[in-house]
Amino acid sequence: MGSPTVAATLLDAISPSDIIFCCLTDERAVTEVFDAILENSVQGKLFVDCSTIGPQYTSRLAARLEVAGAEFVAMPVFGEPTMAEAGKLTCVPAGAAASVARVKPFCEGVIGRAVVDLSSEEPGTASHLKSICNVIIVSLIEAVAEAHVLAEKTGLKTECLQNALTTVWGGPYGIYSDRMSSGDYHRKDPLVGIDMALRMANGILAMAKESNTELAGYQAGVGHMKAVAEYYASKGSDLGDISGIYGAVRTASGMQFENGVSSKQN
Length: 266
Hints:
Elements: H1 10-14, E1 19-22, H2 27-37, E2 46-49, H3 55-67, E3 71-74, E4 77-78, H4 81-85, E5 89-91, E6 94-95, H5 97-103, E7 112-115, E8 118-119, H6 123-154, H7 158-169, H8 171-181, H9 184-187, H10 194-210, H11 216-234, H12 245-252
Parallel strand pairs: 1-2, 2-3, 5-7, 6-8
Antiparallel strand pairs: 4-5
């Protein structure tokens, strides 16, 4: 990635740059940062937003930047933090084809392992896709959590289930299964904070309500995410990881939230 430098201010970072990547926590942060950015000239610059935000926010941002004479690509990514550190994210760029073409050299082999190319699609399409795929991610975590609790309560060794999940499905199934069975879901810092996951869920559930779409599996996961938030609030903490869904399923099944054992011990 060359020789990166740390800028003291937004203006110091943006002024000498042609392409600016942003990845922020939520819609409020994106709005505040771009409010500040747009106080200055951005003519001819290309902004790439990797934040996970609702499609309506992405579309508004795209319109603001177009009026200001800038190019814009929405590029949410798939992959938890360890995958980001390893450069194994999946990038989803959407926007004008020429703008996406300028961004793609920074994707595969640099910050990511693969690209879902949405060239020529409206930028909001990428955020729309990410929102819908989050339904799959939460449903996946819910399913893995339920399987682990069922295995524990019926006498199947954790390592047997872990082996099957990793071998048959791999990827996120193995990652979240290991985080649950090892106890990392309550012992380590969150991979995806439960508060951020619930904020995303609000937008997705609103989308489902407006379109009259049933999301039974996803809603089960959201219910358990709320239970995770309540568990940590009762401890005076705002921490909590999305994989804590496992702890919530344990609690709902008459077990303690924290498993207290590692997968190697079980």
